[in-house]
Design a protein that fits this description.
The protein has a two-stranded antiparallel ribbon with strand order 1-2. The chain has helices spanning 2-22, 37-66, 68-78, 90-110, 114-129, 152-155, 165-184, and strands spanning 25-30, 144-148. The longest helix has 30 residues, at 37-66. The relative contact order is 0.21. With 196 residues, it is mostly helical.
Length: 196
Amino acid sequence: MFGGFVFGFLTISLSIFILYLLGYYQVISITTTNYPVKLFTTLLVAALIEDLFHRGLIVREMENWLGTNAAIVIGMVVELQHIFNPHSNLFSLFLYLIWGFTMAMMFIYTKRIWLPYFFHIGWNFAQPFYGSNLTGLDDMGSIIQSSFNGPELLTGGAVGIEDSVFTALFLLFIGITLYYLAKKEGKIVKSKLFKR
């Protein structure tokens, strides 16, 4: 659980670090007064509901019935509901598909909800922590008051750092790595519909 949280937090942190090196991210001040505990609690509950439904129910049942590969595709499509988040754009569409793929792989590889859930929490906590919008929401508070200046493709623009091409690539790398490991360990199952 702790590892999942740190993993999600560090994934966002790596994108922030690259933006900092490029001069596109600047720290203005640091304070906890702008980050209410109530908002973090909201993030915990929202992530729990989403992960229980998307991974714990949909991906799990689809994998049992249609096999791993079909479950992954369905898990990716389900995440497209996020396209209705504020400021979503065409690139966001690809991000949500990658998110669905990687989160499905976290569940498929571990067969438990804990890794994707705590990764999700770390991911959601890190964005406002660094002063970024969270999936287009700009009222989630912040701990680091910061400034993002640079191409929207790199900073994520109004959607937030999760919409950065850096973040999407890191997320995709994690998903592909988990798929490779799952296949190597025999965790990719075939559809029961085609078994005799």
